[in-house]
Write a structure and sequence with these properties.
Elements lengths: L7 E5 L7 H12 L6 E4 L6 H9 L3 E3 L13 E4 L6 H9 L3 E4 L3 H15 L3 E5 L5 H7 L7 E3 L13 E6 L5 H13 L4 E4 L5 H15 L3 E5 L5 H13 L3 E4 L14 E7 L5 H15 L4 H12 L7 E10 L2 E5 L6 E4 L19 E8 L8 E4 H10 L1 H4 L7 E4 L2 E3 L2 E6 L2 E6 L18 E10 L4 E5 L1 H21 L5 E10 L2 E6 L2 E6 L20 E10 L4 E5 L7 H8 L5 E10 L2 E7 L2 E6 L20 E10 L4 E5 L8 H7 L21 H10 L6
Parallel strand pairs: 1-12, 2-3, 2-4, 4-5, 6-7, 6-8, 8-9, 10-11, 10-12, 15-17, 21-23, 26-28, 31-33
Antiparallel strand pairs: 13-14, 13-16, 14-15, 16-17, 18-22, 19-20, 20-21, 22-23, 24-25, 24-27, 25-26, 27-28, 29-30, 29-32, 30-31, 32-33
């Protein structure tokens, strides 16, 4: 065995091994490994050792659905983390198998985007490897009609389409995708929606791998060469460190010429099992010794990273006095925080910053000409950390607001904390926006589509919020029209009032309650009955879905004045009223608001009246007696004559003109056996007047 070289340090990247999606898929597979009749469709992940282990434990591997035997009992098929096309799901179900869907949630999200936009008439463009299983599966959610492009593809083919929806393989190179996106935006197309669907863990894994490669003497990339993301890690590391080796097994380490001292960095792809990483680490530890990850990564963060203005760095306090704080930031020159840059409120106390205390600040100047120090600002870092809390709150799809600062070609620009927010023109409204300048200074409601923590950039959309609201509104409208029919009682909020009625919102649909249907009595304005902002019950009078019109009634649900009058003033009651109108056959008298009764001409006075206008006029106050109610037709019969003093009766009779033949004036005859109202009065009074 070779002699140990204890000066050689070995470090493993924190973000190594199974990513969330792969681990989830493998866990699913191990969860059913003891069951019979279980199959995995393709390699559940791109690592031969993992596949071999699952096969040994009883899970059968098939390349396509046609290889599935007829299901004689309970059978299961595992969909791998790369996903599958829509037809595959249907075929598996048709063969009688249960599906264990281990598709990575990030991949499943791409499938949803593709399916929706394909249904809406978009041509789908997938950025990635044409034969990669994830790309093949995604293409199956748009009837395999997508155009698959890579960094060297001809983009002119996209000019044939009016509407494009562009998605990306989750493990694709972020920089290449950004370059392709810029080129696509330059193509004169009507509508382009670009979704950055690269997995955020891919960014972080690649960033850490490059950092380790830059600060290591030798780099070991552990994984299977069939893995796309592991190959990408190798390319990135090899670009910055020529001593980068692709390691699939421990045996390959024997062929590498390691230095006697220095640092060996170990990184691994998202499909590499922990066991493989540990085998390499154990071998290196036994042969050469190793340093802790924390020691190495701390060295990267503090001592070897470049100092640049605007970057946050962490150091330790060397001393603090009335002028400020001197900080060791791991480079040749010390850092210095002026007293004005310590706290935002200017409340600086040197005693609060003892020697050895860890402190993080923003680089404001790489080297001060006078002191030679790196100038720092703790105040700016604290402000950045505080404002960036808002970014943490929107990572799970929460809505946020942004004031538009300016417009650029292709969209709008604003900020959230220290992050720059870009809203593509296609993500502002549901329809095309020809003039972006009108949005400057306006507040948009947004949802983050992508958050780039490295470059502190956010791509956001207002359209997704508006689309969800539209779909919700359409759903409510469908329910509304299915249920709102004449004679149905609904609750509605009064939104606004006009001279002819009130506009009422019922489940978000505008309806009209006409002024004629608000009160049984005359009103000059709807606000005499209804108040804006309050909710009332209304009766649906008419509902015309084609014209999108609904008529409501409010008074129809209120007690009718006639019914209240009957209860308050039974037959035989004497009360005062006001003459409303006079007609040849009688006068209408209002006895309660909204309730009028008829005083027939024969009941207007004690004596015969030829012309009722001689005794009654509109506006007159009179005393009447209720003779009868017609409840069905809501009519009231009244009498003035029945209220006159008995002493007045003879005098009135003495003044009567000579009797005339009944046939000429039968309607006004004083003969009691020809006077129906007199007969009715007898019954009411319970008396028999036969004079």
């Amino acid at each position: 065995m070779p002699q140990k070289r204890n000066m050689l340090k070995v470090v493993v990247a924190n973000k190594s091994g199974f990513c969330f999606g792969v681990k989830r898929a493998v866990d699913f597979a191990y969860g059913v490994m003891s069951e019979d009749n279980c199959y995995m469709l393709g390699d559940i992940t791109h690592n031969k050792s993992v596949i071999d282990a699952l096969v040994k434990r009883g899970i059968k591997r098939i390349n396509n659905v046609d290889d599935l035997p007829d299901c004689s009992g309970r059978g299961k098929v595992i969909i791998r983390s790369h996903g599958a096309d829509m037809a595959t799901y249907e075929l598996i179900k048709a063969k009688g198998y249960d599906i264990i869907d281990a598709t990575c949630p990030f991949v499943a999200k791409i499938h949803d985007v593709v399916r929706k936009h394909y249904t809406d008439g978009y041509h789908i463009v997938i950025v990635g490897g044409k034969t990669h299983p994830e790309v093949v599966a995604t293409n199956g959610w748009c009837d395999n009609s997508a155009t698959v492009i890579d960094n060297d593809s001809d983009l002119n083919v996209l000019c044939d389409y009016d509407k494009l929806c562009i998605v990306c393989q989750t493990t694709y190179d972020g920089k290449k995708f950004e370059e392709l996106s810029k080129k696509i935006r330059k193509i004169p197309l009507k509508t382009v929606e670009i979704f950055d669907t690269i997995c955020y863990t891919t960014y972080e894994r690649q960033k850490e791998a490059m950092s380790i490669a830059e600060n290591s003497d030798v780099v070991l990339v552990v994984g299977d060469k069939s893995s796309s993301n592991t190959n990408k890690l190798f390319e990135l590391c090899a670009a910055v460190n020529k001593h980068t080796h692709f390691v699939n097994s421990v045996d390959e380490l024997k062929n590498i010429n390691f230095p006697r001292s220095g640092v060996v960095g170990i990184v691994a792809g998202a499909s590499t099992p922990t066991e493989s990483i540990m085998e390499v680490k154990t071998y290196m530890g036994q042969e050469f010794g190793e340093a802790s990850n924390e020691e190495f990564l701390e060295a990267i963060n503090k001592g070897t990273v470049a100092i640049r203005e605007g970057k946050a760095i962490t150091g330790t306090v060397l001393s603090a006095n009335a002028d400020g704080i001197r900080v060791n930031v791991g480079v040749k020159n010390d850092g210095f925080i002026d007293k004005s840059e310590v706290t935002d409120d200017g409340d600086y106390n040197p005693d609060d910053y003892p020697t050895g205390m860890e402190i993080t600040a923003i680089v404001t100047k790489k080297r001060d000409d006078v002191s030679g120090c790196v100038l720092l600002s703790k105040r700016r870092f604290d402000l950045m950390r505080k404002t960036d809390e808002a970014v943490d709150q929107i990572r799970n799809g929460e809505t946020f607001e942004m004031v538009v600062k300016k417009d650029i070609k292709g969209g709008l620009i604003g900020s959230l904390g220290t992050y720059r927010v870009f809203v593509p023109a296609s993500q502002i409204r549901l329809k095309f926006v020809p003039d972006l300048k009108k949005f400057i200074g306006k507040t948009l409601r947004l949802r983050a589509l992508d958050i780039d923590d490295v470059n502190r950039k956010i791509v956001a959309s207002q359209r997704v919020i508006l689309q969800e609201e539209k779909e919700e509104k359409d759903k409510k409208a469908e329910i509304f029209w299915e249920n709102v029919k004449p004679d149905v009682v609904v609750a509605g909020e009064v939104k606004r009032i006009s001279s002819y009625g009130a506009f009422v919102s019922v489940d978000g649909i505008d309806c009209l309650a006409h002024i004629d249907h608000l009160s049984y009595t005359h009103i000059d304005s709807p606000d005499e009955v209804l108040e804006i902002g309050k909710t009332y019950d209304f009766l649906v009078l008419k509902a015309d879905r084609e014209k999108q019109r609904v008529s409501l009634g409010y008074r129809e649900l209120q007690p009718h004045p006639f019914d209240k009058c009957m209860e308050k003033h039974p037959v035989g009651s004497v009360l005062n009223g006001k003459v409303i109108s006079v007609l040849p056959y009688g006068a209408f008298v209002e006895i309660e608001p909204g309730v009028e009764g008829l005083v027939h001409v024969s009941e207007a006075a004690a004596a015969y009246v030829k012309d009722i206008n001689e005794v009654l006029h509109p506006g007159d106050q009179v005393t009447v007696k209720i003779l009868a109610y017609d409840e069905q037709h809501r009519k009231t019969t009244l009498s003035i004559r029945a209220c006159l003093d008995v002493a007045e009766q003879p005098a009135a009779k003495a003044a009567k003109p000579a009797k005339k033949p009944v046939e000429e004036h039968s309607a006004y005859s004083e003969k009691e056996d020809n006077n129906v109202f007199a007969d009715l009065l007898k019954k009411v009074d319970g008396q028999d007047n036969n004079d």
